[in-house]
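Usage example:
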Amino acid sequence: MKSLQELEEIRNKTRESVYLRKDRAGIRVVVGMATCGIAAGARPVLLAFLEEIKKRNIKNVTVTQTGCIGVCRLEPMVEVYLPNQEKVTYVNMTPDKVSKIVSDHIVNGQPVMKYTIGVDGR
Amino acid sequence: MEDLSLHILDIVQNSISAMAETIRIAVMEDDTNDRLTVLVEDNGRGMTEETVKKALDPFYTTRTSRRVGLGLSLLGAAAEFCGGSLIINSQPGKGTSIEVWFPMSNIDRPPLGNMTDTIITLIVCNPDIDFIYEHSTPGGKFVFDTRLVRREVQDIPLGEPDILEWIRSYLSEGLNEIRGGA
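Running the assembly step on the lines above writes:
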């Protein structure tokens, strides 16, 4: 059984990296989590981002939620914000699109155009 | 919505919009009375009696971006469809509680789904809100409280991958236990 004591170890281990991160401009991954997004499958998409970010040990990414982005038929939608770059909106998201977005866009700064609202949302 | 855990994720968004700081989610699987009850209780801004009356109407919403609000009405309809019901209790300035129950054995009852994924998603997206999750079955009761986690990790955000992983194992182990280790 997991014990609360283990959290103390995690705290000590994590503290340093958390402070490091505060100094760096962060990347934000924002998932639409209104009724439309959740019904269309936003939860597994969000969890896939967490999984991929943890697997690659990427430190400066925050995953968070927003309400209805406004084009419910294209849900699940995900917005990715890189510092000093324009927001990129991905549509019709599925968990298996996530690893490409993380490797191409979040790690290498190249948006995956074919999944974006400009291409897939037409 | 495919299952109740997604409905729960959805209606908790109302508590978040209502600026709740603490949200309690309770799932009760009561075999004796053939009832599956879900309770979502928050200390958000609450609603007036008049707003409560309108809250189940799909053509009512507080947001200004569009004129429909489906979350609560979808859950209410799902419950009524198989003979259950949804009740809203709310007081302005105090908070809101939503109680919905389903006849457990009804063939049309949506499955409970993955509560661990719902709780993890809520914590990641709302690291500053406290969540209390209680789940009881004939096999026992499991309680998870982010305030206890916060006490241990202090200033480290709950969204840290290592903390989330701990929470995920804690939830799955706890839920397994009250399900008879299945």
